[in-house]
Amino acid sequence: MTNIGIVCAMREEVEKITTAFNLTQIDSYLDYPIYQNTHITLIESSIGKVASTLATTTLIDQFNVGKIINIGLAGAIKPIPAGSAYFVQSVTQHDAFIPFDNYQRDMYQSIDCYVPEQSGEMLVLTTGDQFITDNSQIKNGADIVDMEGFGVAYVANRRHIPVTLIKGASDDANNSSEAELFKNLNNAMEQTIVLLKIALN
C-alpha cells in the first residue's frame, strides 16, 4: 500500500483528522508534530505558503510518501455554503508579482491536482500569505482562497508526486471571516474528512 502523506496547517484541523483515522503522535527529531498509522503520515505544518512548502518537503524526504494530500479550511470567494467541502481541481497564487518574463511562468502557474473519480463538484483554489477579509481583493477567477495549498502542490509537482487538495469552506473571506472561521470549523472539517476517506481509497 502506498504511504500517504497529509499536510495540515492548524492544530484544530489536525485534531479532527487524528481522531477520525486513529493517528498517533510519534517521537521525532523533526521540528513538527508528526502523526501516523500503518499507511498515513500527517505533518502539522503551521500556517502559510513557506511553512507548508517546508513541511511538504520534510514529509517527502523523511517518510518516503507516494501521494500527498493537503486538507484544511478555506475562505469562499464565490457563493459557497459555509461548512461544505470540495476537492480542488487546480491551484494558483494570488499574491505573486514579478515583472521579469523569464520567471513569470513559474510564479504564475496553475497546478492541476489529482481528483478521485467520485469527486462531486470541484473548485479552483488560490493561495496567498494574507488572511483575506475582503474577497473583492481576489480577481483571478478562483472559487476559494487559503494560505497553504499552492505551497504543498508546488513541492509535490516538482517531485512528481500526485497531490490532492481538499478544502472546507469555513467563511466567506469578508471582514467577519476570523470569527466565522472558528464558528464553522467543526462542520467544515467533518465534511473534509468525508472527502478524505474517498481520497484514501
Helix/strand layout:
Blueprint: E1 4-8, H1 11-20, E2 24-25, E3 34-36, E4 40-44, H2 49-63, E5 67-76, E6 85-93, H3 101-107, E7 111-112, E8 122-127, E9 144-146, H4 149-158, E10 163-171, H5 177-200
- Please estimate the helix content: 25-40%
pLDDT averaged over residues: 90
Indicate the low-confidence ranges by residue numbers. Answer: none
Question: What value does the Rg take, in angstroms?
Answer: 16 Å
N-to-C SSE string, H for helix and E for strand: EHEEEHEEHEEEHEH
Described by strand count, sense and barrel closure, the largest sheet is: 5 strands, mixed, barrel
- The N- to C-terminal Cα distance equals 11 Å
Number of helix segments?
5
Structural class: alpha/beta
The fraction of residues assigned to DSSP E strands is 25-35%
Strand order of the largest sheet: 5-9-8-6-10
**Coarse shape:** globular
* Number of E-type strands: 10
